[in-house]
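Quick check before the chapter quiz. The format below is the same one you will see on the exam, so make sure you can read both the input and the output lines.
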Amino acid sequence: MELGGSINEQTQIDNGRSKKVIVMTDRVQLNSITRTIIRASYAVSNTLQPGYLEKVRENALAYELKLMGVKVCQQFSVPVVYKDMIVGDYVCDLFVEGEVLVELKAATALNEFHYARCLNHLKASGLKVCLLINFGSHPMSIKRFVNRF
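Here is the expected output.
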């Protein structure tokens, strides 16, 4: 598709049942959402210095995004589907604007487990972007993972 757009088939849960829906996502829109999340993350990082728990930062980031007029869902469950059956789920810290997953950490360093978790979130959800934000390192670190983008 031209103009940087893409068509994405996503799984949504409706009354406990999995269903596929087609969603049109524009790269410019995704980039704008991720920039907003990053801007909000820096605001949280600059206000809450190192030492706070991950949940405290999750709540602060969700609040900051809401102040910016952004739709955000905390502890978003991403179903894992195997042969048309939901066999489990991943819980992502934040789901922003119905497009971007955000995984938060408060660790001194990130490792392959953290990266794999983000990649699994993307694969299970069919979404295109997941941000891994680590508030535990100084300065704060952000990694962007993309899925067929």
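If your answer matched, good. Strands lie at 5-14, 17-26, 72-82, 85-96, 100-105, 129-134, 141-146.
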